[in-house]
Amino acid sequence: MLFSEGLAMLGDGIGHLMTLSNLFTIAWATLLGIIIGMLPGLTATMGVALLVTLTYNMPGDQAILSLICMYVGAIYGGSRSAILLNIPGTPASAATSLDGHPLAKKGLAGYAMGLATTSSAIGTVVGIFCLALLAPMLSELAFDFGSYEFFWLAAFGVVICGKLTSPTDALKGYISGILGLLVAMIGMESLQAYQRFTFDMPELSGGVGIIPAMVGAFGFAEILTVMRNRKDSQVITSKDRVIPRFVDVWRYRRTIFRSGIIGTLVGIIPGVGEDIGSWASYAAARRASKEKEKFGDGSYEGLTAAETGNSAVIPGAMIPVLTLAIPGSTSAAVLIAAMFIHDIQPGPTLMIQNPSFLYQVIAMLLFTTLAITAYGLSMSKLLIKVLSIPREKLMPIVYILCVVGPFAITQRMFDVYVMIFFGIAGFILRELKFPMAPIVLGIILGTLLDTNLRRGLMLSGGDPAPFFTRPISMVLCAVTFLAILLSIPLFRKMVASLFASIGLSRAPVKTADKPSQL
Amino acid sequence: MKNNSRLIVSDLFIGAVFLALGLIVFYSAWNMPRLETRGVPGYAIPGLVPMILGACLALCGFLLSLRSIRSGDLAAHFRSLEIPALFRSNEMRRLLTMLALALFYTLGMVGRLPFWIATALFTFAVIFIFEYFISDKQHGLARCVTLAAVEGVLVGIAITWIFQDGFLVRLP
Fold first, then answer.
1. Which of B107, B155, B103, B91 is nearest to B127 (CA)?
2. Is the Cβ of B144 closer than 8 Å to some Cβ of chain A?
3. pLDDT at A1
4. B4 and chain A: CB distance < 8 Å anywhere?
5. In a domain, A169, yes or no
6. What is the mean pLDDT of chain A?
7. H/E element holding A72?
8. Which residues form the domain of A267?
9. A144 alpha carbon, distance to own chain's centre
10. For B4, which of A18, A168, A362, B96 is 20 to 30 Å away at the CA?
11. What sign for the dihedral angle of Cα A48, A52, A58, A60?
12. How many Cβ pairs within 8 Å bridge chains A and B?
């Protein structure tokens, strides 16, 4: 595709959004996203999953627009409570609290929120640029993918997501991934139309719905966690200036650029998500900084890196969504489900059947970025009031939405029971330190893995060789096995001693403590 | 130390659960029809991938339990857990209360009562119980009941109206 064609389609995408109803959707959905992100216990994934059910009757493009606004708004909104309460509103803002809260304690809460706003906006713009650049290229590459490559892509996604979302205990990440894949095995399989694990329940013949499962795992489970814990800490108020000085933004341009790229790359990795993007950017910024000692004690640079990193993940996560129909984050997994509900087919054929949609998504992200900047810089002090809503009043409402949401799509109480099951199971698994993201990715990728393994074997007459000899398959297979082998302590020690013997070892870099939960 | 002990002990049990679940999945998948009469070759049978996944889950469960067993004195970890105290804690009380209210609302009231009444009662119950009975602060009974009742009715009516008339969604 020519550059000029891309620009023309972007212009069309922007024009498409310039209607009163679309601008109104951007305004309310972004504000709702910011509020949901701000409230500890309400995550971006939960917000997007619940909103899918409300947008069921909307036109497809408007529904996707509202979901993207919710996603971007919630990831940004999480920084508010991280700065003011020292409690990240969403897991994506955990790194933000390290420097944001110390700044608030020094009386710079407003300035920290302003800096978080500009960093989020610039991070999203860097990610959008990469999305526009990489998505058409990856889409063309995806045309060379056959069953063998798609099988490895699914296996690679689950393994790498399991490893990265549970860095201290990869075994639990892998178990989560396998559980998700097993859930995807429930229902009628597509090659021989055989019903697996349905236990004679007709409701299960279509499989387990991703929306009820995610509303349960990210909604009900979160409600139980929030209601169990003690009350939150005191909100710090803001009296200082909010709009950041240009010199502070310009001084950290390298950090912003680096964090934007890291965030985008993390977003492209299936299922990994914003919190890893934020931590990876924060760690990289600290390693490269001339002011390392300020990190963790109110560093502008640390705050900038964390917020740029988590926001850049969002457009990054849209790259595999649009080109391969593989989610780059848990919220993106819900977006894929929503696209299917609204008859939008993401994947390699999108650029042929509906090429303008990519540019519409880019335009949606650009408009949402403008909206978070406007809200963030103008309504910072007003939005703080949201944090004073007591959880006893908020959580029953959220639970009611968790019940209504799954019912709204299929009008079956069965989906509400699925939500409850996943809520309780998700709560227990979280308590036992199993990450949630690989389960979601497993549910999404299970069918892809199953169908393509068997289809690939049928194409080769039962010969598994093409799975290991075709160039892209070979690379994906090697990375997948390497990731698994590197999780084995004995293998890690062997690699470390090998590197030491050839003089390539270096002192370990101390990184910030990161919770293993997503 | 207590958290660490809790994880070590729970890993032992959850590992055993996954080992058993993996073996059950493997066995069920093994017994799935092979569809030979339809000419389906052995490498395309419906049970192939579930069999592989069942085996992987069983292996991972076994490794999790094994790691827990090898991590030290399990009996000492068990003793340090103080399980009765865990069940008497405020955290557990709050958790079980919320779970019971949510389950009663979903399984007992929704579908049996008009949606707005069920929702109003649930909201009232959560606010009242958490603000009066299991709150860190002391509130007056009359104030708590009145506020919870008003908020319950408002939430019940507002949610029903917004979903039914605003988003045109059918309610249970």
1. B155
2. no
3. 59
4. no
5. yes
6. 88
7. helix A60-84
8. 3-501
9. 27
10. B96
11. positive
12. 157
